[in-house]
Amino acid sequence: MNIQLTFDYELFFGKRAGSVEKCLIEPTNALLTIFQRYGIQATFFVDAGYLLKLKELAPQFQSLQNDLDAVANQLQAIQVQGSSIQLHIHPHWEKARYQNGNWVFDMENCYKLSDFNQGEMEEIVRKYKACLDLYSTVPTTVFRAGGWCIQPFQRLMKVFKELKIQVDSSVIPNVQFASEQYDFDFTTAPQKARYTFENDVCVEDKNGFFTEYPIASFRYSPLFYWRLYGLGRLFPSQHKMMGDGLFLTQPKRKNTQLSQFTWNHVSCDGFYATKMKAALKSALHNEQQGIVIIGHPKGMTQFSLKKLAAFCKQYHNIHAFKALSINT
Ligand SMILES: [Zn+2]
User: Which CATH class name applies to 2-321?
Assistant: First the structure.
């Protein structure tokens, strides 16, 4: 079985973006220490719009130059460790401003790629990938959409082929969510660890150009979310996120999670890490060839780092922990 640990390498997008040190550098270093110890590889989906914005504004602000240097060094360290960096796109960076030492986001009509017209959208993908490739030892070929908003994929198909982005890991089978910013529906996605597709990420096409490695999903109980939302307040030393920013809030989704069973990703963030083993066992039971687990450096806690280290320790000799690629 292939276990693909994936991390969206990004700041927060709510009222406070958080610091590079707390959201990226410190937690990622902790992750790399674990991967180094057990000789395993992971995939880091780098928020390339952020990287491009840093590069553009660094000449004007010394603080951003320092952030860029720290991020660039870490992207190199990730690859030296054997893990890979791949393309993650949050296009709201198009409208982001840097004011009084803070990022200010305007999410209106720019949270997801499909908010832009065809020409703008393709240009964003081209320039974000070109920027990320400056920091990658090999051209990037794997994609994860910001907020999982990859639909309608038909609009991205042409530019992805042009740029040889052949692999995607944005789909979370069984999960759907629509709000002011988000819009995705993966309820009809194939229940497979890997499949090829052409113009729709939820429809398998044996002759399709693209390969999907869906993020594994799990059915969570309301009790799980009561614990998840409560533990950070009760036991901050173990359960407070390492990242020091604020999420873009989705109150409706939170209410649903607290009141009924809901599908969501299998993740190593915070309290989600308690379900990794159960999800792996279920994938083995279903004889799947792999499982993709998502995480965020900013979302790691002391608790989840311990859980993840124990998970790697237990399974690194039994299963293959590999970075995502067309060949895994
Ligand atoms: Zn993201």
Answer: alpha beta
To the nearest 10°, report the CA torsion of 252, 257, 262, 264.
90
| DSSP SS3 for 104 | strand
**SS3 for 182-227, per residue?**
CEEECCCCCCCCCEEECCCCCCECCCCCEEECCECEEEECHHHHHH
Whole-model pTM?
0.97
Strand, helix or coil for residue 306: helix
The predicted-structure confidence for 181-240, as pLDDT tens digits, reads as follows 999 999 999 999 999 999 999 999 999 999 999 999 999 999 999 999 999 889 999 999
User: What pLDDT was estimated at residue 54?
Assistant: 98
Instruction: Please determine, for residue 328, whether its predicted confidence score (pLDDT) is greater than 80.
Output: no
pLDDT in tens, 249-301: 888 999 999 999 999 999 999 999 999 999 999 999 999 999 999 999 999 99
Whole-number Å distance, alpha carbon 321 to ligand 1 midpoint, is 22
Question: For residue 70, what are the contacts with CB-CB under 8 A and spacing of at least 6?
Answer: 20, 21, 24, 25
Tell me how far the alpha carbon of residue 209 lies from the centroid of ligand 1, in angstroms. 24
**Structure-token pair, residue 56:** 């553009």
Ligand 1 centroid to 301 CA: how many Å?
18
In the reported structure, the alpha carbon of residue 318 is separated from the centroid of ligand 1 by a whole-number distance in angstroms of 30
Q: Which helix (H) or strand (E) holds 64?
A: helix 62-81
Q: How many Å separate Cα 92 from the centre of its chain?
A: 16
Whole-number Å distance between alpha carbons of 184 and 104 = 25
**Dihedral (CA of 207, 42, 144, 278) sign:** positive
Hunting for tokens 């922990």 — which residue is that? 321
